[in-house]
Design goal:
The protein has a single domain, classed as Rossmann fold (3-Layer(aba) Sandwich), CATH 3.40.50.150. Helix 1 runs parallel beside helix 5. It is an alpha/beta fold and about 280 residues long.
């Protein structure tokens, strides 16, 4: 299966559903709500006056939130429908931002500049088959002294049973590709016109190794015992966060990684092929 056009059709179909969903609450965003997670704000730090690229930005709410905090932002996504919505929301809110339609591995040519921060939000890496090329692209986008910040769902959680999150059910080392036929998105609203998607699983060691091999210095990898959706039936909501019940053994549900560019000469990127998909 040529997964890239399949995934693009799937994500283009998601856009109108997501824009109108309670999950994304676009009206709340327009009124000033910041959808960035508290740990992201703390770990990224002050972005005022810094150039930030958001890869796989979907329709840009996180991107525009960094702009509201003072960053000079560029969002990139392979979904033209998502980028059109991002531009429309930016214009309506009067937020200065640049949005570009391109595959993530074409980002160096598509964006044509380097950045102080490359940010990638939740649910991005599962759409990429080759993390080595992704990490090389990130390194090539970073200005000397800049850094990558990645927040992701923890791959360990994906091997546990969906009902309780207590029993190992799936193979941690099964990288895929995994083909899914799902009528609904994670927002639970609407029916997709294009229901097929292709996804790839990546272990934490694979992610860290790809980033290090691209010449970036890993500053930290933090594992978190909370997530932001009902990943398992037993999770307990605590505001926007979801955690395992009090007293239950905890497992990592999310992780965050920060890695810096200490060199002015990031590795060259082989762009013979390309592949990407967006995130929220």
């Amino acid at each position: 299966m040529d997964y890239l056009p399949v995934n693009r059709a799937n994500w283009n179909a998601r856009v109108p559903i997501h824009v109108g969903s309670d999950f994304y609450d676009v009206a709340g965003f327009k009124a000033g709500r910041n959808p960035l997670r508290p740990f992201e704000l703390a770990e990224v730090g002050d972005v005022a006056g810094r150039r930030l690229a958001h890869l796989q930005c979907h329709f840009g709410l996180d991107t525009l939130s960094w702009a509201r905090l003072g960053a000079e932002v560029t969002g990139l996504d392979f979904s033209d429908a998502a980028i059109a919505q991002a531009r429309a929301i930016a214009a309506e809110c009067g937020i200065p931002a640049r949005f570009v339609t391109a595959d993530v591995h074409d980002a160096v040519e598509a964006l044509g500049r380097t950045y102080d921060i490359v940010y990638t939000g939740l649910g991005a890496l599962v759409w990429l088959p080759d993390l080595t090329r992704w990490a090389e692209t990130v390194a090539a986008l970073l200005a000397p002294g800049g850094f990558l910040y990645l927040a992701e769902f923890h791959p360990f959680a994906d091997i546990m049973d969906d009902a309780t999150g207590t029993t190992v059910t799936y193979d941690y080392f099964d990288r895929g590709p995994h083909v899914w036929e799902e009528p609904h998105t994670y927002t639970g609203e609407g029916v997709l016109e294009h229901q097929t998607s292709v996804q790839f699983q990546h272990g934490l060691g694979e992610v860290v190794s790809a980033v290090a091999a691209a010449g970036l210095r890993v500053e930290f990898v933090h594992e978190h015992d909370r997530t932001y959706f009902q990943r398992f039936g037993t999770l307990v909501a605590d505001g926007a966060e979801h955690r395992l019940p009090e007293g239950a053994p905890r497992i990592p549900l999310m992780y965050s990684l920060r890695a810096s560019s200490d060199s002015g000469a990031p590795p060259a990127v082989d762009r013979a092929t390309s592949s990407s998909a967006p995130t929220a």
